[in-house]
Write a structure and sequence with these properties.
It is a single chain. The chain has 247 residues and is an alpha/beta fold. Helix content is 35%, strand content 32%. It has 2 domains: 135 residues, 3-Layer(aba) Sandwich (Rossmann fold); 104 residues, LytTr DNA-binding domain (OB fold (Dihydrolipoamide Acetyltransferase, E2P)). A 5-stranded parallel β-sheet has the order 2-1-3-4-5, with helices on both faces. Strands 10-9-8-12-11 form a 5-stranded antiparallel β-sheet. α2 packs parallel to α3 and α4 runs antiparallel to α6.
């Protein structure tokens, strides 16, 4: 049996992964479930697990803090993360093991099988350095848009989504603020061309770095980080899904 610890700051994520492991990975023995980074550190030191499922983004102490404070322990890691294109590219470049939330059962089984085949990961520190270099090296793009009688500069990363209203577009920002621009959504799409935005619907252009979850079944939609559900139209669905397969 492989002794495992699950670390995440989201209660629902902990519960779902626990259920999935019990159902699909009978060779995994869950010795501790830790809600947050510090509790995760304590659990690793107490139980000396073989494997840790580790969330990255957690308040106070994140996944990398957990690794730093338990580096004397010998265990393997599978990172769990919500969608973040920069993080995914960095993971693939560094060859670290990761699972994308919501976690797919088959991908979970494959990740565990891969871990079983590894004797150890002596290059973990090197891989982490590569990941951090690629992840924090992302560039922020600035755009200028007309607001009333003036122009305002925005960081593209600060835009969660753009919503059409006739010949105007509402820009929704991570601050919670909404601004109206006297341009059509198509014009905004052209301005943002080449950046991390996807037109998923006639009325919606979204920043794919601010996607929380993707539901790809009948009536596909995405949940953005501001909690809003955005529909994916039928004629945009295949193109949108292809975008993620290429990442």
């Amino acid at each position: 049996m492989i002794k495992a610890v699950i670390i995440d700051d989201e209660k629902n994520a902990l519960e779902v992964l626990e259920i999935q492991l019990k159902e699909y990975c009978p060779n995994i023995e869950i010795v501790a479930i830790a809600n947050g980074g510090q509790k995760g550190i304590d659990a690793i030191k107490k139980y000396n697990p073989d494997l840790v499922f580790l969330d990255i983004e957690m308040p106070q102490k994140n996944g990398f803090d957990v690794l730093q404070e338990t580096k004397s322990q010998d265990y393997k890691v599978i990172f769990t993360t919500a969608y973040d294109q920069f993080a995914i590219k960095a993971f693939k470049y560094s060859t670290l093991d990761y699972l994308l939330k919501p976690i797919d059962a088959m991908e979970l089984q494959a990740a565990v099988s891969k871990i079983e085949e590894k004797k150890s990961d002596s290059n973990l520190e090197s891989k982490l350095n590569i990941f951090l270099e690629k992840y924090h090296g992302k560039e922020s793009q600035r755009i200028t848009l007309p607001i009333g009688d003036s122009y305002q500069i925005f960081q593209a990363d600060d835009i969660i989504r753009c919503e059409s209203e006739s010949n105007y577009t509402h820009i929704h920002l991570i601050s919670g603020k909404k601004v109206m621009v006297a341009k059509t959504l198509k014009e905004i799409q052209d301005i943002l061309d080449g950046l991390e935005f996807a037109r998923v619907h006639q009325s919606h252009l979204i920043n794919i770095n601010h996607i929380e979850k993707i539901f790809k079944g009948e009536g596909a939609y995405v949940i953005m980080k501001d909690g809003i559900n955005i529909p994916v139209s039928r004629n945009k669905k295949e193109e949108f899904m292809d975008l993620f397969r290429k990442l």
